[in-house]
Amino acid sequence: MHRALIQLLWRALAVLSLVLAVIGAVLPVMPTVPFLLVAAWAAGKGWPRLETWLLNHAHFGPHIRAWRERGAVPRRAKWIATVMMCGSALMMQFTPLPLFIRIGVPAVMAAVAIWLWRRPES
71-80 burial string, b = 16+ CB within 10 Å, else e? Predict the structure, then answer.
């Protein structure tokens, strides 16, 4: 019983992440690949057939494999993420959010961008 519940939770996380990735493929403000990476990881824990399908997918498989093998991120993805974060940080400055949020969130985004650009490219 306990093992079946754990497998069900891994599968639920994989499906939820896959759904979020599909939404991210349609909405430009939401990422796709990070959710695919989580979906493949969770599927590897509880749904090997889904993991295999994701790894062999013609479009997403190479990105997932590159991340797993070398922690690599395509240059195009780095640029898109950086531009989106800069745009979000800029738009945030014109909102009535508290100052600590208008400064803190862009600071976190800057740290993520630095980390992202330090990753190898695929």
Answer: ebbbeebeee
Residues 33-42 have pLDDT tens digits of: 889 999 999 9
Q: How far apart are CA 102 and CA 83, in angstroms?
A: 17
Angle between helices 33-46 and 48-56 (to 10 degrees): 140
pLDDT band at residue 26 using 50, 70 and 90 as cut-offs: confident
pTM summary value: 0.78
Alpha-carbon distance of 69 to 89, in angstroms, equals 32
What b-and-e string marks burial along 84-109, b requiring 16 or more CB atoms within 10 Å of the CB? ebeeebeeeeeeeeeeeeeeeebeeb
Residue 45 near residue 10, CB atoms below 8 Å: yes
Three-class SS state of 96: coil
* Identity of the residue numbered 65: R
> CA-CA distance, 117 to 63, in Å (whole number)?
16
Q: Retrieve residue 108's tokens.
A: 């976190």
Place of tokens 């090997």: 48
